[in-house]
Design brief:
The protein is α/β, with parallel strands linked by helices. The chain is 36% helix and 20% strand. The mean pLDDT is 87.
């Protein structure tokens, strides 16, 4: 077996449906190239009926049903230890891949000397580049610049934007320090050597920790810009008080694990201060987004199938005319519209209007208005 794709799911069945539709397309291309591939989904005790909904739709996927929420790292470890692939791809459920993504990434990684892991260029659901696609080591100075806003003020500075390695061109494939766990490709042998994810990290920072340990073991991490994926970032990262607490506590764990002495003490104090300040600033309860399709002018690119047409009819959506421009656009994947074309279109349009994606034969759609808001997914019919 050449590749095992591992996805951890927790109550995001419609996002995962769209992800698996794109993975299925990439799998077809990989198999045609003579490379076997398996897909393993670990369901972390979802309450939304994920497995009974998805299992009949994707017979090529092996579902592991956990009786408890294991967290991100532990669930991934459970899966890769059962995987048959020489290479392992850790993939978030709120992602969309172009058809040739897996083939390109494997080819690139296999050509690199002392290869460790590979990450990829990511955009959010509105088409904007996600700077966390490539990151530097979070030293005390780098973290201070990030938390103080210096990174935002000087996004391309080598001195102040080290957290996202902002001085490096995001259109160029190159070696980087830290990769995002949303898409991380590496050899299973390397996971066996490093022990995989540290299970003390329940959520957040486990990708930073694994990336760092891969480099400590003498290997290199690479950022691949030859392909682009969509990561509906908001779905798995809500910028509320709970997120702030989980993220910074995970970073404190990372610091205590890898730093010593005075540097560690000051770094922890800085993170504790960030928790208090950011938690105070996030007291406002996020407002649930309104249904974007109700009464809206909707443009459909690709196949406007029966299920999609009925869905728009129930929402009272209007067609697009010369005097009635689009409020929302839906990209319907199929013979006339590939995932590669969809991703390119989303990136090109930016925030012109909210984009949504539905895979051929799927019963849902997914979209996201920005990297800081919760992603948006819904069924095309009541299920």
């Amino acid at each position: 077996m050449h590749l095992s794709v591992i996805i951890v799911n927790y109550n995001v069945k419609y996002f995962l449906e769209q992800c698996l539709c794109s993975v299925a397309r990439a799998r077809t291309l990989l198999l045609a190239a003579g490379r076997e591939m398996e897909v393993i989904v670990v369901d972390n005790c979802s309450s939304d009926g994920s497995i009974p909904y998805l299992q009949p739709r994707f017979p090529f996927v092996r579902f592991l049903d956990s009786s408890e929420n294991l967290g991100f790292g532990k669930a991934n470890n459970l899966a890769w230890r059962q995987a048959a692939g020489d290479y392992i791809l850790f993939l978030n459920p709120d992602t969309i891949l172009p058809e040739d993504c897996l083939l390109q990434c494997l080819d690139y990684l296999e050509q690199q000397p002392a290869a460790g892991a590979l990450g990829i260029r990511m955009i959010d659901g509105s088409g904007h580049y996600l700077p966390e696609s490539k990151r530097g080591f979070p030293s005390p100075w780098v973290s201070f610049c990030k938390m103080s806003g210096l990174t935002t003020l000087f996004p391309t500075s080598k001195i102040f934007a080290g957290y996202y390695m902002g001085h490096l061109d995001p259109r160029v494939s190159q070696e980087v320090a830290i990769l995002a766990g949303a898409f991380m490709l590496l050899k299973k042998q390397l996971l066996e050597q490093t022990g995989g994810f540290d299970e003390r990290f329940f959520m957040y920072a486990e990708d930073i920790d694994l990336s760092y340990r891969i480099r400590q073991a003498g290997f290199r991490n690479y950022y691949f810009a030859g392909s682009t994926i969509i990561h509906f970032k908001g779905e798995s990262t809500r910028k509320d008080a709970r997120y702030i607490k989980l993220f910074y506590e995970a970073m404190i764990l990372f610091v205590r694990k890898h730093f010593r002495g005075v540097a560690s003490w000051w770094y922890v104090r800085l993170l504790e201060l960030a928790i208090r300040l950011k938690a105070a600033a996030s007291k406002t309860k996020p407002v649930a987004p309104a249904d974007p399709f109700v009464g809206a002018a909707v443009a459909v690119q690709g196949e406007n199938n029966v299920a999609l047409a009925r869905f728009l009819e129930t929402k009272g959506s209007r067609g697009v005319t010369a005097g009635n421009p689009a409020d929302v656009i839906i990209y319907s994947e199929g013979p006339a519209l590939s995932y590669r074309s969809i991703i390119a279109a989303v990136e090109k349009r930016g925030q012109q209007y909210p984009p949504f994606i539905t895979g051929q034969g799927s019963s849902s759609l997914a979209g996201s208005h920005s990297k800081d808001n919760q992603g948006y997914s819904m069924p095309l019919a009541e299920v």
